[in-house]
Amino acid sequence: MISRVLVPMDESEMAKRALRFALEAHPDAEIVVLHVVGEPSSMMGGAAGLALADDTEEAAREQASDLFERVHDIAAESGIEVKTDVMAGHPARAVADASEEFDVVVIGSHSGSLADRLLVGNIAEKIVQESAAPVTVVR
Predict the structure, then answer these.
(1) How far, in Å, CA of 47 to CA of 90, rounded?
(2) pTM of the model
(3) How far apart are CA 92 and CA 23, in angstroms?
């Protein structure tokens, strides 16, 4: 029986589809939506802001707040409450690490643009390879 489901989320339509799938397929499970903010570097705009923040955890939560509002709206359509969490780090590594505490991970296959599909598709592939829990990939 599946009692805990991890749904990594970004702003993509595929991630929203993954959340809707998780809500439909596992309505009785605890669903935790995880947003991973990239590790701070000079090449990453949003993540670079984390490096400059006094409280990086609070800054990461602030960056994720709009996304989490949409997550709660999607969950409300199904009449299900979800929990949210945010982490800083490399997305595939962070999700794989978090997967140890879940029965299944439900992820979107990729984002919209070609560049996003290459990057996020690659992240989805790494999660499938490294996850401690079974992974469902939603298209």
Answers:
(1) 11
(2) 0.84
(3) 22
